[in-house]
Specification:
The protein is an all-alpha fold and 62 residues long. The chain has one domain. Helix 1 packs antiparallel against helix 2. The longest helix is centred in the first third of the chain and has 22 residues.
Length: 62
């Protein structure tokens, strides 16, 4: 079973990658961007509830 630190690390990595992908696709495919935005919100809520400070990590700021 993964530790809490491993879970947080995996979510932080996913959050960062997702933001990169969102930045690349925002103008070219709005429907896909909206789908990605839903996952972004889920990750943001989860990480916040785990006590992760998203100030430096959150580049989308939505």
């Amino acid at each position: 079973m993964p530790s809490a630190a491993d879970i947080i690390k995996d979510y932080v990595i996913e959050f960062s990658r997702l933001q990169d992908w969102m930045a690349d696709i925002k103008d070219s495919n709005p429907a896909t961007y909206e789908s990605m935005h839903k996952r972004y919100i889920e990750l943001k809520v989860t990480l916040s509830s785990l006590g992760v400070n998203l100030t430096e990590l959150d580049r989308i700021k939505a």
